[in-house]
Structure formats: C-alpha cells, structure tokens
Amino acid sequence: MKKLKISNYQQILTLTLVAATTITSTTHAAFAQLLRGAGDSFAQPLIERYSQEYQQETGGNFRYSSIGSGGGIRLFTNNSVDFGATTLIPTPIEINQMEDGLLMIPTGGGALAVVYHLKEVSSNVKLSREQLAKIFTGQITNWQQINSRFPNKKIQVIVCSDNCGTNFILTKYLRKITGGKIVASRNPDWGFRVFSALSQDGEIAGEVKRIDGAIGYVQTNVALKNNLSIASIENKSGNYVKPTLEETKKALANVTFQDDFSTEDIQDPENGYPLVSLIWLLVHKKYANQETLEKTKNLMTWILTKGQQLNEDLGYTKIPDDVNKKVIKAVNNEVSISPF
User: Fold this and answer.
1) Of 259, 299, 255, 257, which is closest to residue 281 (Cα–Cα)?
2) Model confidence over 193-235: pLDDT tens digits?
3) Would the pLDDT of 240 be above 80?
4) How far apart are CA 26 and CA 9, in angstroms?
5) Rounded mean pLDDT, 320-329
6) Domains in the chain: ranges and CATH
7) Which of 12, 77, 238, 257 lies at a C-alpha separation of 20 to 30 Å from 39?
8) What is the pLDDT of residues 254-304, one digit of tens each?
C-alpha cells in the first residue's frame, strides 16, 4: 500500500498557523501575544481542559491545534508555534534542528482505545495479542475469525493517515508482540488495503460509528465522548483489560525518566492496559520575545502544578511528584530569553 499523504485539512491548518505567526510577529506592537501550540490529538482532550481552567483561573489564554505529533514537532522546530505536544520523543535529527533548544515536559499518561462497531454483537469484544496484530496486518479480515458467534462480516480497518503519535503507539506495541515483524512508525505501511485513513481522532471515531464492521483506534476520551464500543485487549500477563485509569496507571507504574525527561519506549507492560503512552509538551530553551517567554513559563508551571489535578478527571495519569519537581525546576532555570 502506498504511504498516505498529509490530508488537505492538515495542509490548510499548517499554512494557517504559519500565516498567523507572520501576522502576529508583524503586529506585536499593537496586540498582545497569544500563545500558540500544536501537536498530537492524543493530548487534545487534556490540553483543551487545561485551556478552559487556565483561562478561568488566570485570565490567560492560548490556542492549540491538533495536527498530529509529527506536525506539532515540525511547526515547533520551525518556530511557527510557541510549544508543541507529542507522544513521540523527537529523533536526534529533529532535536538537532531545534536552534532555540528543547525542554521536554512530561505532562501525563493516557491510553489508546481500540474501538469497533458491530450492530449484531451486544457482548464485549475481546482481542488477543495475536488477533490484534493480524487485524492490523490484514491477516484476519472477518469478524467470525475473532469469534465464531460473531456475524459473518468483513472487518473494515480505519487508521490514522498522518504523521501521528497514535500510529506509533499502536505499531510499537505490534512490533514488540510480533518480535519485530511489524515496524514501529508514525506513517506505517500497513501492507494491505485499509477501508479508510483519516487525520483526526474525531474523524476516525465518526467513521467507526458510521460503518458496521469497523475497527479503529483513538484516544480513550474520544471513544467515550462518541459512545463507541471499546475492545478488551490481552496484556502480557494474559489478562483482557480495558483502557481505564486504573489499568493505565498499572501500565505506567514502572516508567523510568532520563535526565532530559525522556523515557524508554513503553512497548509491552507486564500489567495493566498495554496500549499506553506519555505526553510531553515541548518548549524552547530560548525565546526571542520576553512576553512569550513569561507566558510560556507561567503556563507550563500552572500545568505542572494545578493542571496536574485535572488529569485523572479525564482518565490521564499524573506525573510522579519527584519527577514533577525536577521538571518545574528545569522550566524555571533552563528556559530564558535569547541573547540574540
């Protein structure tokens, strides 16, 4: 299957963001700076909640565009936005291109729900590790191959089309459980003809809801908001679990943070729900504009303190307290005005 191109929607949104950046920079004397962020749809429900509470509490405001982790990293690198959001750790090449430096801010952890639509099935669908891998490699194509009591109906696979973190969360798990036969990628070549490929979690959710026999994957909050059926997935211990907050906490319990606040890939946790990821906000270490610098530091400090209390309301985990304190210190000490 050919690799899928960035959607027209994302192209237009990217151009709009770049244009907005130009307009903002040329009219700074007349208008106050509005912080702009862009990145992963996986983080969008949490960031939207941050935005609502932050504005209500502080009067501060920011704009966030959900265009995928890859798109967020690209716009952040190009200085087209003030901060990014990602479930992917930027590659060494990408970090090298960030002329104003990078501070990665872990913000929370969440789960990727495998969602489906089967009109004739009222019971919960359980997918083994092998079945999940075979569905997303085109080796299982009919629901009766999952369970003989399911209808004789073609499985319509719906995927993310763009350079997105949800693709990476799914494929890095499939890579682990298949012994490397599947390549972890932001833009996977699925190796078969999928039913449709869409750029946003909301679009994928809508398509799954519309198509009987469909299966796809979205951030858990998006699945719940759209009243989608969520499959139970077999974990490494052989238990079938759903992406609840409790199971997400179990899966992320043993994550170790490095000095730069990155982590080892979370590929196949022993306990809990297996399709999980951390979320990082990306900020520059140097900002050319004093107002943008102050607003960015204020926002990040708020997210790491009061904002953390909102995470579990939306099913996201909080960052451990000891790590959180180190991140706050890094924001205060390492993010500053550019001397040039």
Assistant:
1) 299
2) 999 999 889 999 999 999 999 999 999 999 999 999 999 999 9
3) yes
4) 26
5) 97
6) 8-110+275-337 (3.40.190.10), 111-245 (3.40.190.10)
7) 257
8) 899 999 999 987 778 999 999 999 999 999 999 999 999 999 999 999 999
The C-alpha torsion from 185 through 191 and 196 to 201, rounded to 10°, is -20
User: Can you say whether the dihedral through the CA atoms of 186, 62, 221, 194 is positive or negative?
Assistant: negative
- Listed as own residue / partner, the contacts of 143-146 with beta carbons closer than 8 Å and 24 or more positions apart are 143/118, 143/213
Name the residue among 37, 31, 34 with its Cα closest to residue 80. 37
For residue 296 the two structure tokens come to 């960015």
Cα–Cα dist 237/275, whole Å: 14
User: H helices within the chain, ranges in order?
Assistant: 8-26, 44-58, 69-77, 92-96, 129-135, 165-177, 201-210, 220-225, 245-252, 290-304, 308-311, 321-334
Structure-block tokens of residue 138: 């085109």
Is 0.90 surpassed by the pTM of this model? no
N-terminal to C-terminal alpha carbon distance within the chain = 47
**In the structure encoding, which two tokens stand for residue 321, read together?**
């307290």
Q: Is 39 helix (H, G, I), strand (E, B) or coil?
A: strand
State the residue for tokens 């799914």: 170
